[in-house]
Design brief:
mainly beta; 12 strands; 43% strand; SH3 type barrels; 2 domains; 6-stranded mixed β-sheet; Elongation Factor Tu (Ef-tu), domain 3
């Protein structure tokens, strides 16, 4: 067994039991494909299986709804718990494609050799996901073929060509 931490459940959202998911590198579609997770209470303690009934991408974090969690009070019982899943359960994302959790933590290097920082977050957007890279400064890079030149998961390195003018921002 090789568990992967998916994220931490944040505060309840609304009155019907939705919860935010902090630190997630999977999008709503990927979360729905997994459907069942192990929920763990922080700092040891309880754990139980939870079943996802809906997920939707929201900025800055996805909103989730679980089976049997139909009120704000019920959702608050899951707040701050972590979601885990066995790595083996993750479907193959396909050739030339990686899960967002595989990318987060990679070193980001410009094609001229400069180290820009570490990929910390991936934000969904209308056109392309946005890579949030933090180093000496924060970079917001569109995950577009003209920007992302190479991804080497084995080495943990993403090579990019920063868009013209971005360094002036």
């Amino acid at each position: 067994m090789n568990p992967v931490r998916i994220g931490r459940l944040g505060r309840p959202h609304g009155l019907r039991g939705d919860l935010t998911l902090d630190g997630a590198s999977l999008d709503a579609r990927e979360l729905m494909e997994l459907r069942t997770f192990l929920w763990r209470k922080p700092r040891g303690g309880d754990e139980r299986e939870v079943r996802l009934t809906s997920a939707r991408d929201a900025i800055p974090r996805p909103l989730l709804h679980f089976d049997g969690v139909d009120s704000r009070e019920a959702a608050s019982e899951l707040t701050n718990g972590e979601l885990w899943v066995d790595r083996e359960r993750l479907p193959d994302p396909g050739p030339g494609v990686a899960y967002t959790f595989q990318l987060v933590g990679c070193r980001v290097v410009a094609d001229d050799g400069r180290v820009l920082g570490t990929l910390e977050e991936i934000w969904p957007s209308g056109a392309h996901p946005i890579y949030v890279v933090r180093g000496e400064r924060e970079w917001l890079l569109p995950a577009h073929a003209g920007v992302i030149r190479n991804v080497d998961l084995a080495a943990g390195v993403i090579t990019v060509t920063p868009p013209v003018g971005i360094e002036d921002l």
